[in-house]
Write a structure and sequence with these properties.
Elements (H helix, E strand, L loop, with lengths): L5 E6 L3 H11 L5 E7 L2 H11 L3 E5 L7 H10 L5 E6 L5 H10 L4 E4 L6 H28 L22 E6 L3 H8 L10 E6 L6 H10 L4 E4 L10 E4 L5 E7 L2 E7 L11 H12 L3 E5 L8 H9 L3 E5 L8 H8 L5 E3 L4 H9 L1
Parallel strand pairs: 1-2, 1-3, 3-4, 4-5, 6-7, 6-12, 7-9, 8-9, 12-13, 13-14
Antiparallel strand pairs: 10-11
Length: 351
């Protein structure tokens, strides 16, 4: 259990944004600001000196940028949870995705072209949600994970020997790191299509697909309307759009829409899983990885009802145990496995 205020340091080269974030943090209960820094070198020294629980970290700064700060902190074995503050520029999206791959907790976009009051409110909403997830990751929900049986003691539904044609992976907070641990381990000849829902702002999904593609044997692309779903390719749902599947002639294709959010999410894992279960029946293998919230519970129920199988990530190694825990406590997980065993478990089911 995490007690006491979250100790937060604010790092941004813009005096305007530093002050805005300070003002916002002052309105969030249970937060104590322990320092500020205007560049990467000062940030490293500040973190070493005050050892905050959390840092808000500008992605692009002169000198040592946000990614270099994260690497230096890791080298010094300093481990505050980093919420990246990103501006939407040509360099901003790839750099932010790289930071998430390097271990950043989550990302917030700097609002552009809006009234300062609206900008403050947007930042306030985002920071409130992220800091609530931080508190969850630092103890409250993770501690409750001891009630979940370890993987080797989990009561499993016997495998039916079904051939799986579709693997659906869902994740949120901590997802880019988790996906980097799973997708590059899948072989090029994987005999199933793979579709991924990652909760992330829409500006970053293309860069995330490119980063995963560069390190994987499978082709990883951002899904587009009408794109064919085929074996040996990974399709990443675009941020801000729901992804579903439909049969057209002999092919299965992607269907995108910007309908209402589900559990605050678009894309929604529930939306994709329900669609996949309706189309593929028992041939769906669902994987629920780290993330806050409960997106995926209804979709996993649909998968189970049609004879498919559900794998949830074990608590240890989750950045936030919310999504997997929701599936486990609903009694929908056939297997609960550590992150490092997820790829091997998928491959085993597809043989």
């Amino acid at each position: 259990m995490f007690d006491g205020p979250l100790r937060v340091a604010v790092i941004d080269d813009s005096a305007l944004y530093r002050q805005m974030i300070l003002n916002v943090l002052g309105r969030i209960a249970g937060v104590e600001v322990v320092g500020t820094a205007a560049d990467g070198d000062a940030a490293v020294e500040l973190v070493a000196r005050v050892q905050p629980d959390v840092i808000t970290l500008d992605v692009q700064m002169p000198g040592r940028d946000g990614i270099e700060v994260l690497r230096e902190l890791r080298q010094r074995r300093l481990a505050p949870l980093a919420i990246m503050i990103s501006s939407l520029t040509a360099q901003g999206a790839p750099a932010t995705v790289a930071a998430l791959m390097e271990g950043a907790f989550d990302v917030i976009l700097k609002p552009i072209g809006v009234d300062p009051h609206v900008s403050r409110e947007l930042i306030h909403q985002e920071l409130s949600e992220k800091l609530a997830a931080v508190r969850e990751s630092l103890g409250a929900d993770q501690a409750a994970a001891v009630a979940v049986p370890p993987p080797w003691k989990t009561a499993l539904r016997p495998s039916s020997g079904t051939r799986f044609d579709c693997v659906v992976i869902g994740t949120s907070t901590g997802g880019p790191q988790a996906l980097r641990a799973v997708i590059p381990q899948l072989p090029a000849e994987l005999p199933a299509a793979v579709m991924v829902v990652q909760h992330i702002p829409p500006q970053f999904t293309s860069s995330l697909a490119e980063r995963l593609d560069s390190g994987s044997m499978l082709r990883v692309v951002e899904a587009a309307e009408g794109m064919t779903v085929e074996k040996g390719r990974v399709l990443l749902a675009p941020g801000g759009m729901h992804l579903a599947v439909s049969r057209r002639d002999e092919h299965v294709v992607c269907v995108l829409d910007d309908g209402p959010r589900r559990h605050g999410c678009r894309p929604s894992l529930d939306h994709l899983l329900e669609s996949a279960a309706a189309l593929y029946g028992s041939r769906v293998l669902a994987i629920v990885l780290t993330g806050m919230g409960c997106d995926g519970v209804e979709g996993c129920r649909a998968v189970r009802e049609r004879g498919g199988r559900v794998i949830a990530q074990a608590a240890e190694g989750c950045v936030v145990f919310g999504m997997p825990k929701a599936v486990i406590t609903a009694g929908l997980a056939d297997e609960v496995v550590p992150l490092e065993q997820v790829a091997a478990t998928v491959i085993g089911h597809l043989r």
